[in-house]
Write a structure and sequence with these properties.
46% helix, 2 domains, 9 strands, 256 residues, alpha+beta, Immunoglobulin-like, 5 helices, four-stranded antiparallel β-sheet
Length: 256
């Protein structure tokens, strides 16, 4: 994981901060860099002229839509050409910034989407099966995890799924699920009190009759308790922050 070894030292300190503050800092950094790239990798004079021309054309189109619809349609086609030209001018900075942003987003999704499974705290493991699956599923863990009372290693498939509740000390575990048909799948589980450390809690399985394996990591909600956005994850909060920051920066830097 070369990218992980590069990104972890840079972004891991943010994991000790409140999630909303960490996302705000990342939003400021990414939006500032993309705005500066956009300003200096595009012909701002040309961009401003195109936008001004399009704004004037839109105003004239509204006036013509009632008096001369055909002319308004012709102007609309011309505007589409201008819009394509505007997009061509924007392509270069997008090309330079898109791949780094995708890489950073991948890191964020791996470290800021869920809370870790804490040592000796109960968590659930749910195995969803393909539609119509019957029989039973057996779970095996390496190293051994503790099961909640009344749990059994082998459980019958009920309503298309099987669930166990367990706990364990800090460490990496391998769960093996074996269906009564003989089909078998593995799932990694990480138990730790380090923020931002977890295995992906929802994994789609391509081996019949298994469908998905779900671990009960809680989703991180950076602005939990706030109206409208309280249930949003990191990506939604990032978009809100970046839109506000981008608008302010473009005004300050006079970016087209």
């Amino acid at each position: 994981m070369v990218l992980e070894s590069v990104l972890d030292p840079v972004f891991s300190p943010l994991l000790t901060l409140p999630s909303w503050l960490a996302i705000l800092i990342i939003s400021v950094v990414i939006t500032t860099l993309t705005t500066i790239a956009y300003k200096y990798l595009t012909d701002q004079t040309k961009m401003k002229a195109l936008k001004k021309e399009m704004k004037g054309a839109q105003k004239r189109m509204k006036e013509l839509s009632k008096s001369d619809p055909q002319k308004a349609m012709k102007m609309q086609k011309d505007m589409m050409g201008k819009n394509m030209e505007l997009m061509r001018h924007s392509f270069k900075p997008t090309l330079y910034t898109l791949i780094p942003i995708i890489i950073i987003f991948g890191w964020l999704n791996s470290h800021m989407a869920y809370d870790p499974l804490l040592p000796n705290e109960p968590f659930s493991v749910t195995v969803d099966m393909d539609k119509g699956t019957t029989g039973s599923v057996e779970i095996d863990t390496i190293p051994e995890l503790q099961f909640a009372k009344d749990e059994t290693l082998v459980k019958n498939v009920t309503d298309g799924s099987v669930m166990w509740t367990m706990r364990g000390g800090a460490g990496e575990y391998q769960l093996t699920f074996t269906h009564s048909s003989g089909s078998q799948v593995d799932q990694e589980v990480l138990v730790t009190d380090e923020p931002g450390m977890y295995e992906q809690p929802l994994v789609k399985i391509r081996q019949q009759p298994f469908s998905t394996v779900k671990i009960s990591n809680d989703k991180i909600r950076p602005l939990e308790g706030f109206p409208l956005v309280g249930n949003w994850g990191w990506i939604g909060i990032y978009i809100i922050f970046s839109l506000i920051i981008s608008f302010s920066l473009r005004k300050a830097l006079k970016v087209a």
